[in-house]
Specification:
InterPro entries: Acyl_CoA_acyltransferase, Diverse_Substrate_AcTransf, GNAT_dom. This is GNAT family N-acetyltransferase. Keywords: Acyltransferase, Transferase. GO terms for molecular function: N-acetyltransferase activity. Pfam families: Acetyltransf_1. The protein has one domain: Gcn5-related N-acetyltransferase (GNAT) (Aminopeptidase, 3-Layer(aba) Sandwich). A five-stranded mixed β-sheet has the order 1-2-3-4-5, sandwiched between helices. It starts with a strand and ends in a 14-residue tail after the last helix. The protein is globular and about 40 Å long. It is built from four helices and five strands. Helix content is 35%, strand content 26%. It is of the alpha+beta class and 148 residues long.
């Protein structure tokens, strides 16, 4: 099998959109966002100014994606990345595909001289937590909140 991890490209738009719907609606059980908004997000990430998106292709088939957003830390007075998404199709979780997507994000963060990479996962996503523990992730001291 041939695994390729690379930047998302415009030609990936339709396949990536479907994969993102599988992630948003299928995995996280959240409402399906408008496809126009999702396409705008993907196209914003293609510019690599506010973030980047990577895709995983196995034998030429799109099977996963990861998204990094760029932001700042006041405490470090510097930029860091937020890995907002790391998703592979169910049968490829806990495989080299997932590991290589994660490593691509980590490598990008280091190569572009961001201070660090952070991420969160759902409290009940114990499978992902095991993966993040195995790759050397350090659980933070902060409690995350959000508001609409």
């Amino acid at each position: 099998m041939s695994l390729v991890i690379r930047y998302a490209e415009l030609d990936d738009l339709n396949g990536l959109t479907e994969l993102m719907y599988e992630y948003i609606v299928g995995f996280y059980k959240k409402p399906r966002p408008d496809s126009e908004k999702l396409h705008q997000l993907i196209q914003t990430l293609l510019k690599k100014q506010e973030g980047v998106q990577f895709v995983a292709l196995l034998d030429g088939k799109l099977v996963g994606f990861a998204t990094l957003y760029f932001t700042y830390s006041t405490m470090k007075a510097d930029r860091y990345t937020v890995m907002n998404d790391l998703f592979v199709i169910e049968q490829l979780r806990d495989t080299e595909v997932e590991s290589q997507l994660f490593l691509k994000c980590h490598k990008y963060t280091k190569e572009h001289q961001f201070t660090h990479m952070s991420w969160i996962t759902a409290a009940d996503n114990t499978r992902a937590q095991r993966f993040f523990d195995q790759v050397g992730g350090i659980r933070g001291d902060w409690v995350n909140y959000s508001i609409l």
